[in-house]
Known about the structure:
Elements: E1 7-10, E2 21-27, H1 31-38, E3 39-40, E4 49-57, E5 62-72, E6 83-89, H2 93-104, E7 108-109, H3 114-121, H4 127-137, H5 142-152, H6 155-179, H7 189-207, H8 210-218, E8 220-226, H9 232-240, E9 258-264, E10 267-273, H10 283-298, E11 301-307, H11 314-322, E12 328-333, E13 355-357, H12 366-379, H13 393-414, H14 419-437, H15 443-450
Parallel strand pairs: 1-7, 8-10, 8-11, 11-12, 12-13
Antiparallel strand pairs: 1-2, 2-6, 3-4, 4-5, 5-6, 9-10
Amino acid sequence: MSLSDTIAAIATAISPQQGSVGIVRLSGDRAVAIAQQVFRTRQVWESHHILYGYIRDPSTNVIIDESLLLLMKAPRSFTREDVVEFHCHGGIMAVQQVLNLCLEKGARLAEAGEFSLRAFLNGRIDLTQAESINDLVGAKSAQAAQSAIASLRGKLAQSLKYLRSKCLNVLTEIEARIDFEDDLPPLDVEWVKAEIHLVSQESQQILATADRGELLRTGLKVAIVGRPNVGKSSLLNAWSRSDRAIVTDLPGTTRDVVDSHLVVGGIPIQVLDTAGIRETEDVVEKIGVERSLQAAQSADLVLMVIDASVGWIEKDTEIYESVSDRPAILVMNKTDLVHLSPHPLLPPEKANLPIVKTAAAQQQGIEDLEAAILKCIQQDSIAAANLEVAINQRQKACLLRVVRSLENVQIAIADQLPLDFWTIDLRAAISAIGEITGEEVTESVLDQIFSRFCIGK
């Protein structure tokens, strides 16, 4: 990769007969020159103006598309390079032909995330802001999007740069005493300890957002399990307000895992409706049962559904034992028929589990179910409080190194080790914070981060 190249890529999702607009983006020193070869307009080429015209193949003079062109001259662009965007008709052919023209005229196809990488390398954004762009594109809920926007605006970076500056100030004072011990007053050890404690404490507060961040990005996987015909599919349909799952009075109707994507309390949730778990000779149903058990074992939370009109029976115990190592909520469905129950609803040993009563066929109890899920998440520390920003797993690993390094500094101070020992771990903490913001980062780390981006970002 070379920053001297002019890169090009399709910057919008492209599907046949879908999408009214497709964007081809160029960035680099030759972006304007390439655009002027293929775009014909009667307007003056001015930066930050929208031009109207036609895209032509210069070699054949054939019109490829009628489009708009947005010109952004350096440094007033996302990459701080000359940037040109062709706003073409959507679909596949128009944008692909425009991209091919740009490549023929000297542009290079951009690598994954290369536009954002150039923005970072040219000082337009820091690394936390770059990662938040990818988080925003992949956001599965409004809350996840808001968290990404906060980081994109520099909320996380501001906190981290403040902590890094604190550490640098302490390091400067310590190293000054090492180099000019006779010319300076003694080091204020209590001030050093207070500063280190403050940075450590605030680092841990940011660390506490990691689980929340992971939850907002990846969501929660919830598996609905139970015997056949207890209302699992009805529960999914009522919850998702759709007919995702087939519902009949015949046991064994659901033969495979059916999923639906919901948002509860700002948290994306993938709900898996599994086949009824029972002994069966039907080969297809048996495969469905095996997949149900696998889905339950991979889930973050299990909704164990029982038929309230029947009560808890021995088969429920067998199913529960197969998923007892997972966090679970007991869902007593068909409560509108509970007066017909010939058995106790629950055995005494299950009474301490979270219980929700629903009548899925009547659209009842869904709000209570969502409240129970959110409560379970909070109790199990799957999510922290509602936070403005939330770090990702890479940032978490770096902050853990910061906290450990500062703990080592505190130990060195307590053990009255020479000042040189204090600086070793203090530098390690400074470096780890710099890895988060991008002030100290290796090329391999950058490759790993930006390879997860789409080509046009």
